[in-house]
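$ fold --in a.seq
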Amino acid sequence: MTEPLRIAIVGAGVIGAVHARLVSALAPGAELVAVVDLDESRGQALAAEYDVAYHRSAPEAYRAESVDLAAVCLPSAYHADAVVEALENGVHVIVEKPIDITLAAADRIRAAERQHGRVVSVISQRRFQPVASFIRRSIDEGALGRVTSGVVESAFFRPQAYYESGDWRGTAAIDGGGALMNQGIHALDLLLWMLGTPTSVSARTGRLAHDGIEVEDVAGAVIEFESGAIGLLLASTAAYPGLPVRLAVHGSAGTAVMENDALSFFASATVSAPAAESLVESDVPPGWSDVDVAHRRQYENVIDAIASGGSPAIGTDDGRLALQVVLAVYESARTGQPVDLRQAAKSGASR
């Protein structure tokens, strides 16, 4: 029998606790063996909850616990340093979104990934939801015809207390952005997955419902794609009481809409609508959401990639592309001008 993959959580905050719960459900393929956090009381509390070792230093944890995979759950601007540190210690990595907050940092990660030959995956778990996967297959199989447009909405709500819960939240230097960088990036990733290579971005952002933050709580963008398709994006943390992510993909032969993690509309000139039960998660543990199960499936995909020596379904190129579009939204909003992503790629821009 193959030994379970040994996983350490790096960062014992709210997201680290989510990852610890997910990893604990991965047996027998993986097991949680360590929690790493500079905050000793917080780190020890999470480690005690799962009866694993606590370490203040990640390299110390990697050596002492023979760690195979690190889950980096730190504030966004610390991602690259933590990922590169893990790779230099021979450890594979799952890193929370965004990959980091600058393209230069993302490129550091990609260079270290190539140098050390380890798997790195960026969390984008919504791709593993059955409905999202079905819509992508429908596109690939031609059921929607030529894709002409896509609309994605991440209309969430975060109270003022959310931004006051950590001194890094809502900061440009550490959080890197607001409603789009930290919440809407999941919806943006779905839009990019469905529509392909983006070529230009025109956007506006606002800080309308929260005080004392440096970042946006509303962002809207028009994204043009290499195929000619047009995408519309809304990301907000100022939409009380908050709604589920909504994705609509329109084509010359069909339309598919995902809402509340379900297929709310499907029409195709060439194929019939799927049976509703075929798009329902069949293995949802009590208290888990469909997104939780999708998150677990991303872990399982990474574990399979490590075992087979292959590549994960969502890699550093995907994480960099999503970050590039987020930064283009911010630049367009700042300048009032469209951002040509093709020109940026030619010039090697790496904010």
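$ fold --in b.seq
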Amino acid sequence: MKQHHSDVHTLAAAYALNALDPAERTAFADHLPYCQACREEVAEFEATAARLADAAAQTPPPAMKHHVMAAVDGVRQLPPRVTAAPTAGFASALRRRAVPLALAASVVAAASFAGVAAWQNQQSEQYQQRAAQAEQRLNDVSAVLAAPDARTVHGRASNGAVTTVVASERQNRAAFTAAGLPAPAPGQTYQLWLDHDGTMRPAGFIHQDGTVLIDGDTAGAGAVGLTLEPAGGSRRPTTAPLLLMALPT
């Protein structure tokens, strides 16, 4: 299709999106080396298309939807830059391209917001799961502390933390409490142990002051130990015990 010189400039977006027919693409490619404005527009359209594709393929950041929805009412759509009125044939060609381009933009926007919705749903499920787990741990600790046969023993770790163990023989469970526990160095964590006739078995972690349920079978265990271990814990103690306290009987 023969193009006026002013019409050629309007093909930058379609060229960047590979939406021109072969003849038009050849004509625009011949024009491109001689037009700095068109080269800049093509580069901008290609970069924008790449960003849109990338946004549809990746998980959006948490604050994206909030910022978009907060800003959308205050953004004014700019009028198109027109240097000359297109011919009837060229206007018809633009309308033909406008439909698929608009549909593509709609698909990209829908995919972006679908990603936000999926992320929010996943986050909500994770929060609910964590809340349920925290509630279950609280109920388990409360059951030990309120057990009719609960027995208590107090101690002090070598790093100065004050500790308490409450055990219920009937429930075969025990709870460990620490106060004044210094923050571990980066890459380390406090690990609990149950001493079964000299064999130390992993019994969970305590990361800060508070109360945790001791993991494992307390039946037959004679003491509770506390060590400083690499993050993630160890199968056997790798440092000297900060505490080794007999279980209450």
